[in-house]
Amino acid sequence: MRIELKKFGEILISRPAGREAYLAMSAYVTKDLDENEPIEVDFSGVKVLTPSWADEVIVPLARKFKNVKLVNAENATVQATLKTLREYSDLKI
C-alpha cells in the first residue's frame, strides 16, 4: 500500500491537521489492512512537513504497521522532521 502525502497538501503543518489526516487514512486507506501489510509513505510533492503534523500521522502509522518504508523523503524539511521524530517520538523507521 502506498500512501501519497501530497493528497493532504504540499504544506503539512499543525497537529489538528495531522490528526484529521490520520483519521481519514484510518477510515478509508488503512482500515482493513493487516499489521504486516507493507506500507510506503510517499513524500513526493511535499514542500513543508512539521514535526507536529508528522507526529500525528507518521508515528501512529509506524506503531500500527510493522513494515513501513519512507520514500521520496529527500526534502530538507522532511529530513529535519524525521530526525526530530526519531529523537523525541521514538520513531524507528
Task: Walk me through this protein's architecture.
The protein has 93 residues and is of the alpha/beta class. The protein has one domain. The chain contains three helices and five strands, in the order ββαββαβα. It has helices at 15-29, 51-64, 76-88; strands at 2-4, 11-12, 39-42, 48-49, 68-71. It has a three-stranded parallel beta sheet, with helices on one face. α1 (15-29) packs parallel to α2 and α2 (51-64) crosses α3 (76-88). The protein is globular and about 30 Å long. The chain starts with a strand and ends in a 5-residue tail after the last helix.
In short:
The protein has 93 residues and is α/β, with parallel strands linked by helices. It is built from 3 helices and 5 strands, in the order ββαββαβα. The protein has a 3-stranded parallel β-sheet, covered by helices on one side. Strands 2-4 form a two-stranded parallel sheet.
What are the main properties of this structure?
93 residues, alpha/beta, two-stranded parallel ribbon, 5 strands, globular
